[in-house]
Amino acid sequence: MVSTADTEPDIAARLTEVRRQISAAATAHNRAADDITLVAISKKKPAAMIRAALAHGQRDFGENYLQDALVKIDALRDAEPAPVWHFVGDIQSNKTKDIATHFAWAHAVDRFKIARRLSEQRPDGMAALNICIQVNIDDEASKSGVAADEVADLAQQIAELDGVKLRGLMAIPAVSEGLAAQRAPFARLAAIRDDLRGRGHVMDTLSIGMSADIEAAIAEGATHVRIGTAIFGARES
Question: What integer pLDDT is reported at residue 7 of this predicted model?
Answer without folding.
Answer: 65
